Amino acid sequence: MRIAIISDIHGNFPALEAVLDDLRRRNVDQVINLGDCVSGPLWPRETIELLIRTGWPTVRGNADRRVSGPDPAAMGRDQLVYNQLTEAQRSWLAALPVLIDLGQGIIAFHSTPTDDDRYLVEKVQHGELVRASASSIRERIGATKGRALLCGHSHQPNFIQLPDGPIILNPGSVGLSETGSPHARYAVLVLDGEQVAAEMLAVTYDWMMAADRADKNGRPEWAHALRTGCGIS
């Protein structure tokens, strides 16, 4: 079985389209979306329309929770996103589950099983994300059981085998790479009996167009991140 895992699209419609084109050549059995679908200064309406059409299982990220909330004034610069979405689209985001059990011991969530705004395998050190200890990761997993745990949130691709514990897979970000290259990132989890492997993928797309869009919408820090893949400073 081959499960494609996407996460953190952040309204980057051309990046999502490029990933979809690549997926058609990968012979996958299922696609799971780990959330943070539309937040950011790009194409929220087009992105959510496509995601709703696909019918993919999708978990709710912290940014999805924020932009679907009842108070636009509390959303900061994501008020632009709120205003571009319809009430039905905001309701779709709000109703997304925070965790999905895909069967076969595969559990999907946005960041940790119990907190949608906490890193699972990283910690912040001197303003940068670094790997957390195995004991810290286990504490954040809590009572959740599975042989493979799928998470996003950090925009950092990771494939980790905990000693005597589950595999943790973060596919990276489709729409806002923070890997040092601006490619759209996703992954394919490969299940073969008891064996679990992964393909970590990087897809080219027109990131200069996405950066120009961010600039036009008054977000130069997003434009720089989109051009370079170096994250938002």
How are the secondary structure elements laid out?
Blueprint: E1 2-6, H1 13-23, E2 30-33, H2 44-54, H3 62-67, H4 79-84, H5 87-94, E3 99-103, E4 106-109, E5 122-125, E6 128-131, H6 134-141, E7 148-150, E8 158-161, E9 167-170, E10 184-192, E11 195-203, H7 207-216, H8 220-228
Helix pairs in contact: 7-8
CATH class, anyone? Answer: Alpha Beta
Instruction: Record the strand order, biggest sheet.
Output: 3-4-7-9-8
Coarse morphology: globular
Largest sheet: 5 strands, mixed
Number of helices: 8
CA distance, first residue to last residue: 39 Å
The percent range for strand residues is 15-25%
CATH architecture: 4-Layer Sandwich
Q: What assembly state would you assign to the polypeptide chains in this entry?
A: single chain
Tally of separate domains? 1
The number of distinct β-strands equals 11
CATH-defined superfamily: Metallo-dependent phosphatases
Which blocks of ≥5 consecutive residues have pLDDT under 50? none
> What is the share of helical residues?
25-40%
Compute the CA-based radius of gyration. Answer: 17 Å
Order of helices and strands: EHEHHHHEEEEHEEEEEHH
Structural class: alpha/beta
Walk me through the structure:
The chain has 233 residues and is α/β, with parallel strands linked by helices. It has one domain (2-228): Metallo-dependent phosphatases (Purple Acid Phosphatase, chain A, domain 2). Helices cover 30% and strands 24% of the residues. It has 8 helices and 11 strands. The chain has helices at 13-23, 44-54, 62-67, 79-84, 87-94, 134-141, 207-216, 220-228, and strands at residues 2-6, 30-33, 99-103, 106-109, 122-125, 128-131, 148-150, 158-161, 167-170, 184-192, 195-203. The strands form 3 sheets. It has a 5-stranded mixed beta sheet, with no helix packed on it. The protein has a 4-stranded mixed beta sheet with strand order 2-1-10-11. It has a two-stranded antiparallel ribbon with strand order 5-6. A hairpin with a 2-residue loop joins strand 5 and strand 6. The chain is globular, with a radius of gyration of 17 Å. The termini are far apart.
